[in-house]
Amino acid sequence: MQGSTVNQGSELGYTEAHAPEAGHHGEHPDLRLFGFIVFLISESMLFLGLFVAYFTFRAVATSWPPVGTPDLEILLPGINTVILLSSSFVIHNADTAIKKNDVAGFRLWFLVTMAMGATFLAGQIYEYAHLEFGLKSNLFASTFYVLTGFHGLHVLVGILMMGTVLWRSRQEGHYSSEKHFGIEAAEVYWHFVDVIWVLLFTILYIL
Amino acid sequence: MAQAELPRQIPLDPLGEQEQGPNWREYFGFSTDHKVIGIQYLVTSFVFYLIGGVLAELVRTELATPEVDFVSRETYNALFTIHATIMIFLWIIPTLTGGFGNYLVPLMIGARDMAFPRLNAIAFWIIPPSGVLLLCSFFIGPASAGWTSYPPLSLMVNKGGEAIWIAGVILLGTSSIMAGLNFIVTILKMRIPSMPLMKMPLFCWAMMATSALQLVATPVLTGAMVLLGFDLLVGTAFFNPTGGGDPIVYQHMFWFYSHPAVYIMILPAFGMISEILPTHARKPIFGYQAIAYSSIAISFLGLIVWAHHMFTSGTPDWLRMFFMIATMIIAVPTGIKVFSWVATVWGGKLRLCSAMLFGMAFVSMFVIGGLSGVMVASVPFDIHVHDTYFIVAHLHYVLFGGSVFGIYAGLYHWFPKMTGRFLNEGWGKVHFVLTFVGFNMTFLPMHVLGLQGMNRRIAEYDPQYAGINMFCTIGSYILAVSTIPFLFNAIWSWSQGEKAGDNPWNSLTLEWMTTSPPPVENFEEDPVLVSGPYDYGHTYYQDLEDKAIAQS
Ligand SMILES: [Cu+2]
């Protein structure tokens, strides 16, 4: 074979970890967190697309929100925003805890974060129930419901992720200071959901 | 995992006499082996290609005569809509990224598998049900608003079929995002230590650029589909002007994905051509860095040209000007590639096998599609030919003359690696000639039809176009027939073809440094790179260098 690439790694030295006997699927540095962040970049493009669509609707409309749309109440969503934002700090404690191998601690902080997320969702449902416009009232109303609803769905997914991690943590040693991808992923995701909400809140309620 | 234990028990045969591909049953199951998944993609999407091809022949048969006589107008609309949807989402994208990408990327970078094998398998298994779902919509009246599915038209006809179409596009988009995620992580993080980015085969560069587009552009399409779905099923009015919505926003979102989709469909083919030409010309690739960076440039520029599809949608002048210039700039990195390929082949010792024939046909046909692309990028010209057969001709020169020729070149080139056997060369040449002649007969005259003003997407036309249309239809039948020798060749050669050995083309990239087909986890021992991927005729350059040193 005139290949200039050599197959006999032994002379040229491959690391022990890569020796064929040791090889099996997934035998390489843990790339899951990196992959998850790449996924979130992709996911943020979905929101970016919807945001830009919103701004275009708004720019083209003669008046925004259309005449006769009742004003949005800002107090409840404001409180909701504070709750969601502070939950980002809460969940970070879970990360700190697991890095010290404190499983009970991470569980506690996850539970608190989940409770805060659930409060946010409850607040949003309350807001939906008391708004004076529906999904189909006008273009503003439709974008409002779809954007907040889509975000709410992400909050729900975040809560479910934390729930899954908690469920898995029943098993002794499933998460430790060395091995806690699930916890990190849930945290990164939660921060992501938070950032999206800040943007959404600014766009819909303040601007 | 059971299959992981298999290969090491079987001694590797350096001549590749031993056939040790996966058990055939694995191809029907949830395998996480990237090579099995690659072939699953290739075979599945080829089946969809045949189905999409049948739809195309029905369209051409209707167009053989000016009258509506073969199918009804409604059926005609459904036929070209589903034809395009299948060819794009179920044939070219899955074959190039899922099929070749999966099979080749880990082998080329010396990895044992993709970064996320299970995600990889899930991404594949989304595709067959989505395709079947889309085809099932024929029972209730499929989407008929064209593959662009512009509202308000798409909100008005065959609502059930349209809903299925939207669901299908969202599912296939999700699969594509998963694949892109996997590729980018694999390429960035799983190369063997001796392979820096600048020693990576150009196909991997192309796949990196492609995956970036899949990741960034596809979610916006999903967003558009969600809003369109709300309009269709719930009755909101995001895109429906009667309810105060704005259909132009849909067009922006749609093309923000669908222009980059063109590059998702052509960049991997560019990459394969950059592998095939130097191998069969026995010369180093000309301008490795230029080709590598131009992939990235195309990927980036591809994201900011989408509104050239909307020159007649009331886009303001300053915006049209921007998109016109940006689009024309893409011709620069693309031209760099073409010149590099020509320079690679120039003066080479060409091996005119089927892979090389398709590869060179790719370059020449793609140039025609690329040039007509620059023409339609120009606003005044586009206004004249918008929605005419000129566009149909242009896009088929890119997607068939480009992507499909590239796919065929890749199949002839890597079939020996995948199966351990050659495709029959005689039948390969028959296939090539029929495809080349049929393709040009079908699509070259369409440029003329378009310039004369024949509109696309309409079942009946002015009798003055009858002659050329009949000619195109005959060409399309030749194109259909051309698939038959390939199909039988592939099926027969898979088990009966001439044995190829490990490295039949004397190629230098890593996938050829293992057996054909490669064992599970690809390499018996980790390969180590000692030269670049295209150092063909290395001694010649070595001599020059030695001479220069001696002289100094
Ligand atoms: Cu385009």
Question: Which cofactor or ligand species appear?
Answer: copper (II) ion
Strand content of chain B: under 5%
Q: Pair with the most extensive interface?
A: A-B, 53 and 65 residues
Question: How many distinct helices of chain A?
Answer: 6
Q: Report the total helices of chain B.
A: 15
Distance between the termini of chain A: 68 Å
Count of individual domains of chain B: 1
Helix-strand pattern of chain A, N to C?
A: HHHHHH
The chain-level structural class of chain B is: mainly alpha
Helix content, binned percent of chain B: 55-70%
Stretches with pLDDT under 50, minimum 5 residues of chain A: 1-26
- C-alpha geometry of chain A: elongated
The structural domain count of chain A equals: 2
Q: What is the C-level CATH assignment of the largest domain in chain A?
A: Mainly Alpha
The third-level CATH topology of chain B is Cytochrome C Oxidase, Chain A
CATH superfamily of chain B: Cytochrome c oxidase-like, subunit I domain
**Fraction of residues in H or I helices of chain A:** 55-70%
Give the quaternary arrangement of the chains.
heterodimer
